[in-house]
Amino acid sequence: MGDIKRTFYCLLFFFGGNLAQAEQYIIGAQNIEYFPHYDFTSNVDKGVGWAILEAFSDASGHEFVYLDMPVRRLQIELNKGNVDFVYPDNPRWNSEGTTLGEKTFSKPVAHTLSGTLIRSEDIGKGLNFIKKLAIPQGFTPVKWQKRIDDNLLSVVSIEETYNALSLLQHKEVDAVDVEYHVGKYFTQSYPQLGPFSVDVTLPFIDVPFLLSTLRHPEIIKELNLFLVNNPRLISDIYEKYDISLPEDLIERFRTEQNVEEDDLWKPL
To answer: What are the CB-based long-range contacts (under 8 Å, 24+) for 260-266?
Structure first.
């Protein structure tokens, strides 16, 4: 393993040119159990995002300390300078108190499929069937916003993913807005849940998870070079966590559900 790390370290320096001086940085991270993408409360395995950032740490020499906190506190602590980076972040999300133009975002550290998880028996019932939707606390249901604004849908904010899926199991909500691999992980870990499916005629979106900063764009530049120059390493980490790219998943679900290309969900 040491030889592999040294190889990537050399690769990064070969492609990266002049790198910033290595030191310790604090990454503010969501304190939500969203495994396999992330679980920064874990002392063992914090998920695929953490694994990629740690591979970058090994290559660059920068040390990252992960400080998990509620979603809505992340941007506040970033603005105060109490954390150097936020993960995951995305310019599509609401960042209260932060001017978007001041932030520097990395290339995608991880690709995710945020979809509509329903009971398998409800596949094909359509958009109007969804009257009550569970979402993780602190998340913004962007792809559902128009129906919420039109009072066609009520939202139930849930702190724990397991609890959201339990509500779906007991028909207390019609759907859960959740990342596909997260839903898969929980149904595999808790056999009493499910079967659930991502209905591709209902809202879904490819949401890249990015690293953001206000004060260290030079580190973001290094990370971007690392992500571009080490595709095999990134692919191996994805494979370890059994994560597929969103476009591959959508095509698989479309075939399994006999959905025509024109019938795939499209933003209203």
So the answer is: 263/201, 264/200, 264/201, 265/200, 265/201, 265/202, 265/203, 265/204
* pLDDT tens by residue, 73-95: 999 999 999 999 999 999 988 66
Q: List, for residues 121-162, the tens digit of each pLDDT value.
A: 999 999 999 999 999 887 778 889 889 999 999 999 998 899
For the chain, give me the number of helices (H) and strands (E)?
9, 10
Residues 6+ apart with CB under 8 A from 54: 64
Predicted TM-score (pTM) of the model is: 0.85
Q: At what angle do helices 48-60 and 231-240 cross, to 10 degrees?
A: 150
End-to-end CA distance of the chain: 49
